[in-house]
Structures are given as structure tokens and as C-alpha cells.
Amino acid sequence: MNAISILVLFPVLASAAVLSVRKDAVRNIIVRICAIVTGILTLFVVCRYFKDGISLSFANKNIIDTVIASVEVLIAAYIIFIGIKNKKYIVSVFASVQTALVLWFEFTHKHGIYIHSDIVFDRLSAVMVLIVGGIGSLILIYTVGYMKWYHIHHEEYKERKSFFFSVIFLFLFAMFGLILSNNLIWMYFCWELTSICSYLLIGYTKTTQAVNNSFRALAINLGGGLAFAAAMVYIGTNFKTLELSELTAMRPELAVLIPVFLLCIAALTKSAQMPFSSWLLGAMVAPTPSSALLHSATMVKAGVYFLIRLAPLLAGTSIGKVITLLGAVTFLISSIIAISKSDAKKILAYSTISNLGLIVTCSGIGSQESLWAAILLLIFHSISKSLLFLTCGSVEHQIGSRNVEDMDILLKVSRRLSGYMIVGIAGMFLAPFGMLISKWVAMKAFIDSKNILTVIILGYGSATTLFYWTKWMGKLVSNANRKDHVKHTFHIDEEIPIFIHAVLVVLSCFTFPLISRFVLVPYLSGLFGPTVSMPIGTSDVNIMLIMLSMLLILPISFIPIYKNDRRRIVPVYMAGENTGDNESFYGALHAKRKVKLHNWYMEDFFGVKKLAFWSNVLCSVIILAGVLVLIGGITK
Amino acid sequence: MQGRKGPSVLQPFYDVLKLFQKESIEVNTMHRFFVYISLIFVIFTTIIMLLGGDILLALFALTLGSIFFVLGGYASNSPYSTIGSERELLQMMAFEPMILLTAIGLYYGDKSFFIKDIIAAKIPSIVYLPGVFLGLIYILTFKLRKSPFDLSMSHHGHQEIVQGITTEYSGKDLAIIQITHWYETIITLTLVYLFFAFKSPVSHVIAILACIIAYLLEIVIDNAFARAKWQFALKSTWVITGVLASVNLIILSFFR
């Protein structure tokens, strides 16, 4: 058996093992071991096949296909059942239509289509495997610590930890399968499986809100799955192939663009782009580790990963333009809405949608520079956002709230935790960290491909991004001294994965020239020929690295100055009415009043109510325009 | 008519020298750190610019410096400083698109972001970037901290937010903030300079003159207008950026 097959199938085994164990202590050990094994397998596979890549074909394909088809039927039956039971008929309809479609295709048209390579591992898959396997196993280790406290803090929810871990392992299997498959039927199966896992995890707490949100996520993702199935059937019947690599090698003519557009729709639903974004916001009711894994680091990345794969067919076509515009609008609007939010997970969700929008824009343009930026964005965003979600989960345990307004005491509660969070936030938008490097290259790519409108949108979007992150950071450094907080300890279970994440954020910024040299340039050379080079000049890279070193060294260099220069400390200025503890002031009639400092949310300007509706309308119109372009092309 | 004599032109420099000799008091041990880091990154930006480096990279370093300054306001956890920080951040959000679009406009001259290439172009950028230039002049008021857009801090103590971000700083730290501002002024005027400088040596004299005129214009504006509300600051800047700079760039991208 090949190492890749082991990597893909191992999580299934882990999933089954975890499900059967009821004892907490035993299960925790099993989860930790399986997480570490997954991590090691990931590293092994990547090291083993990194240089030359590999494509595999399986001899006993019929058996695998039969197993997949029967599992698909079982899943469809389950979805139809829960849809009817919970009166969410739309999911039942979606599930029955797409399963019927796929089964019909498999029994009538599939014969005679020979698939040369079922699994393809190249540099881009290596990146995704590293993200899924690496970050996935770190998050799993974190989850062990997190879930221990989750149920102590939330006694109202039924404890289903075995189920939770089992689904996460199942999800890892689906994700590996999705990334590595070149066979569209397998890919479609894994695609659907990730939707189901997401549904199960969102509904974990079984509250009414959680159930409703999980069904919304399922409905939208199944809608995308339906588009995927339709595209697959179209490709199979018209081109007599079922391989992704065959599809991307075709010329972007109208007959090809129709299934590509359908696949793009599927990708956009998975990546929660407007107008399909509402499910990701609802998904935030899930326990934080699953948000970190599914809804920021990996599953939503599957959509943009797919778009990056399809990019050669999008570059310069009308569909590409539609996708570009849609991504750009999503990027801007969600970064604006994020300003009006104070719930940390909501901000993270909007920021995820926004950054995915940027990746979508880059892949819609499809030039070599823009794809360079897209892949780098994908890497950096996964690491930083996963770090932020994990710290967010720990902060919730520490201060009992995930409202950014309450995080002003975090520096007093846990200095290290707020430090990690600051690293995560810096990684999201500040020079010289990764996201900014990629945004910078994206901007260059937009200019060079004459997409001046996207450049302008990126200008505005960067400004709004800067606003919501900095005000959050401001709360973290504000060092408020409220005495009413209860101190918890920051557990080692949670700290180790968070620490590794933080190191990865910094390390990935230092090593991005290497990532470019060994991953991005070779991959892009395969698409664009040997002329590909790094879009940032050496002198600029050096300046970036100097800046990064400065950021690391400067805080340390201040310690001796602080030791020698002790100063008089006075109460803060409150127009002379500070009571002396910096927490309250003398108001009218000399009554003591608490000081409350709030960030600006500017609901009138950036409120979600006004913006979300119109942006969804706008994005629907853009998609409709894509449909019209295709119909116009057919009738011509 | 009054023939009264004001302080000399060099007074700001004397003020800073005097501040260095004053006692520095603070509200906590954290917040001065941010001011020094801010200064270091602003100096870094100036070096990149004067060495003819990448203008986008320089602007990113400048943003980093400004963000540290804002964080310093938050770190004091004082009501007036925090309001000042929020307003400063809002100002940054207002003018940031215009600054970025300026850099992008300058790129079109020689298809390079490097300042040394921009000032060696065949024709001055002002010729094809009039809209962008006007937009830049509009946001100059923010960068030079002049009325009507001096929302986040002010030289005058007795106003609605006291001195905004700088409220809790004194002595050396306040002097550092003033020096940071001088650097920022140089950086901002360098942007004006880039619109006029090109291959011809005479153009550099014209460019310096343009900077002086722009600075004097800002002093006139400072004295002629009362402080605006933040709503107006944000809306007007975004609209002006959207109209002047964007239209200019869209037209330009058709021809180049």
C-alpha cells in the first residue's frame, strides 16, 4: 500500500476507534496519538513525494467505486430522512436530486471512461496536505484540552465528545481525499462528505439555533454539491473523461466553460462567498476548534483550492471576470461589515469571507503573479486564522466571554495568551507579515492585468481591514485593571498547539522566499512555462526581513532601558475627577461612576442590515450576468 | 493694526529641546514603548524613501509606525487617549485608500514602484495624474494634522478630547512624538515632490517649490477651517478618493 493511501485512510480508522471509546482519559490518549500519527504521516508523505510528485492509479477501482456509491446512497438516505424529520425539505430535495443524477450517470454513461490517474500529488497538493495534516493535527491536540473545559463551562449541553472527535477525524479523511483526488467521482464524494461533517459539527450543541444554522449550512453546501454533480455529469457525457487534470488542460471554449462555471458555483458555496456567505456566520455556533479547522483553515479553503486549480480555464474569459468581480465585492463588503461586529468569532468569520474573496479574485484573474499571491494567501491565512480561532477559544475559557470589548483585561489575566493573539492579528494585516506580502503581490498582479477596478476595491478594503484589526489589537494592549475578573490557568494542552501556531506564523514570514522558490515557482512553471519568477525583488525581500527582525528584537531591547529608567506613575487624566484607581471618576453630586471605554462600531455606517442585503443582491446579479453570458454564448 | 510679534519660526524646535529636559511621568509602564517603536519605523520609512526604494513598501512601513502610535493611545487606557486613538484610526481608514492609489498612480509613469525610477521618468507624473494629485492634497490635511481634520490630537490643550492620543505623554515621550511628526511631514511632502520631479534637473527645484507651496496652503487651510466631524471626514475623503483618484486611474489604465 502506498504512503498516500495510508495517509488518506488512517483518519477513518482513527474515527472508528475514537467513536467506540467512552472513557475520557483513554479517548484523550487515543486522540493525541492519532493526531501525532496523522502529523507524522503528513510530513512523511510530503517529504517523500515533494520533489517529483506522483500520480496513482488503482487496480481494483470497481470495488472502490461501488463502496463510494453505496456510502453515497446511505448518506443521501440519511439526509433525506433528517430533512423530512426537521421539516427542512430543501436538503432532502437537494440530496435526492443529486444522488439520483450521479447514480444515473454511473449506471448509464460511465462505462468506457477510463481514468488514468486517480490521485495526483504535486506541489500545490503538498501545500494543502501540509495545511490539512499539520494544522489539523495541532487543532486536534488543542481540542482535547478545549473540550475538557467546554463541558465544565457549558453544563447545559449534552456531552458527545466521542462523536465530536470521530467527526473531526472523518473530516480529515474527506479533506485529504478531496485534495488528492484527480478522479472527479472521488472528489465529489469527499466534497459531499465535508459538507456533512460541517453539518454535524455545527449542530453539536443541539440548541434550536445550532440546528437551524447547521441546516442552513447543509442546504447551501448541498446546493453547491448539486452544481458539482451536474458539472461532473456534463463533463463525463460530453468529453468522455472524469479527470480534473484533463479538464484543466482543455482550451477555455464555451463548451468547457459551462461545467467550469458550475464548478465555480460549487467552489463559491464552499468558500462562503456572497451571496452564499450566510452559512459561515451561522457556523460560528459550533465549538471553537471545529470553527478553526473547518470554517477557517481547511474546509472553506477547499473551494478556493479548487478555483486555483481551475484558474487556467478562467484566465481572460468572461467567467473569469465574473468570478474576479464577485470575489472583489465580497472582499470589500465583508471587511466593511466586520467593523460593526464586537463578537470575536463573528469578526473572524467576516474576515475569513473577506480574505477568501481576495483569493477568489486572484484565481479569477489567473495570471502567474495573481496565482502566486493566491497560494501564498491561502497558506498564511490558514495559519494565522487558525491561531486566532484557537486563542479565541482559550480566551473564552479565561474571561468567560468572546466579546472584544471584554478583552481589555486579557493582558492582566494572561500575558502570554494576549501575546499569541497579537501575533495572530499582526499576521492578518500588518507589514511585514504574510498576508500583507500576498496582498501586495495581488495588487501588483491586478495592476498588470489591467483590473484597475479591483485595485481600487483592494485599496478601500485594506483600509477597512486595518480599522477592525487595529481596534481589536488596541483592546488587547489596553491593560485595563478591572478587579472583578476570576483568574483561570491557561492549560498546557491548549498552550502547546497555540505556541506552535504562533511560531509558524512568524516562521512562515521569514521563509516565504523559500516557499516561493520551492513550491510556488515550480508549480507555476508547470502552468506558465519556465519564465516564472518571484514577483517581489530581492532588495524588497531583504527590507521585509529586516522589518520582521526589528519587530522581534525591539521589544526585547527595551527591557534594559526600562530597568534603568523608572518613572513616576500617576493616575490617568479624567479632567481632575479620577477617584485614584483609574476605574472610576466623580460624577454629578460627587457620586462614583465607572469608566467604560468602548471601541467604535459605527453601525449607522457599516451595519450589517444595510450592507448585507444589497451586497447579496449585487453578487446575485453578478452571478446572473455569468449565466447570461453563457446562455448568450450558446444561442449565438 | 497690531504689530505684535509671535514666537520665532524655530519655536517648535526649542519646544522639543525643552521637553527633553522635563520630567517624564507616565500612567503605566507599557505605553511609552509604542511611541519609540513608532519613531523607529517612521525613520525606517524615510530611509527607504530617500534611498529611492519601493514606494509601496515604504508606505507599509509608515502604516506600521502609525499603528504603533495608535496602540500607544490604547495602551494608556485613559478615556481621552482612547478616543484619540479611535479617531486616529478612523482618519487612517479615511486616507489610506488615497495614499495607496497615489502610489499606484505613480507606478504608471515608468512601470516601477521604485522612487529612483519614478523621478527618472520622461514626463512628470502630474501631467497624467492631476486627479490623483488633487486627492493627495485633500488628505495632506490629515497627514500634517491640520484643521479641519485634526480630530485625533491637537496642540491646544483645552478642547473636547484634551490632547487626544498624546494626553498621557509628557517630557521625553512627547518630544519623541513631535519628532515622529516631523518625519511624517517629510514623508508626506516627498509624495508631493514625486509628482513634479522627473529626468530634467530643473524639475527638482520646481518640485521643492511645490512642496513649500503645498505646506503653506495647508497652513492657510488650518487657519481658515474649524474642525470637522468624523462623519464628514470619512465620507468626504472616501468620495473624493472615489471620484478624483479612481476616475483618473481608470482613464489612465485605458491608455497605458
TrEMBL record, chain A:
Residue ranges annotated for the NADH-Ubiquinone oxidoreductase (complex I) chain 5 N-terminal domain, each copy included: 113-148
Membrane topology recorded in Swiss-Prot or TrEMBL: Multi-pass membrane protein
InterPro entries according to UniProt: CPA3_Na-H_Antiporter_A, ND/Mrp_TM, Proton_antipo_N
Principal cellular location given in the protein's record: membrane
A GO CC annotation given for this chain: membrane
Protein location: Endomembrane system; Membrane
Pfam families hit by this protein: Proton_antipo_M, Proton_antipo_N
Family stated for the protein in its record: Belongs to the CPA3 antiporters (TC 2.A.63) subunit A family.
Stated name of the protein: Energy-conserving hydrogenase
UniProt organism field: Acetivibrio straminisolvens JCM 21531
Organism ancestry: Bacteria, Bacillati, Bacillota, Clostridia, Eubacteriales
From TrEMBL, chain B:
Cross-referenced InterPro entries: ComplexI_Subunit1 (IPR052561), NADH_UbQ_OxRdtase_su1/FPO (IPR001694)
Membrane topology: Multi-pass membrane protein
Transmembrane intervals: 33-51, 57-77, 89-109, 121-140, 182-198, 204-225, 237-255
GO CC entries: plasma membrane
Subcellular location per the Swiss-Prot or TrEMBL entry: Membrane
Keywords: Membrane, Transmembrane, Transmembrane helix
Record's protein name: Energy-conserving hydrogenase
Organism annotation: Acetivibrio straminisolvens JCM 21531
